[in-house]
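Q: Hand in one record:
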Amino acid sequence: MIFEISDFYERKFLTPSQRQVLLKNLQANLQPEYRRRIEIMLLADVGKSQTQICKILGCSQEMARYWITVAQLGLAEKWQERPIGRPKIVNDQYIQRLKELFSHSPRKYGYAFSSWTSQWLNKHLATEFGIEISDRHINRLLKQMGLSTQKRSSKKQATKDTKETGSIKICDLQSHNEPNFHWLFNHHAN
């Protein structure tokens, strides 16, 4: 153990009962991350600096700073409340809702467009769940479900139309209530 009895004569942040609880938990069979949290707070309490704590425990500056602050605020009992690792914000409910949204036209939900984009799926889900993830992550989730926001058949058709007629097709993508307008320009000089 890295603590000596004499280390606990000079105390900075923790109450005697907090220190006692932390020491007791330190003796339990803990996951290394939880053990490190306790050790950081105990070392900070005996006056070790952030740099010294990082050297002793081999932890990051950010981790040491966070748990030193927790000790300074007198919140040592919170050592196990914060989950370890990156939070998993996308749960099964989120995935099911993404699938459900994707299977219906955005117009059903009051949008003017007829096909979803990852950006609009993300915005809609952010309003429902309060969770924002990247558009790229939305695309990854869709790909895992075998789905995509890209229309392959219309792209092939547009390429085919352009090759056959030798013209450029311009579409009004922002049309709200009117039907889409399409103009064909023949780029051959007469």
User: Anything to note?
Assistant: The helical segments are 16-27, 32-45, 50-57, 61-72, 92-102, 118-129, 135-144, 152-165.
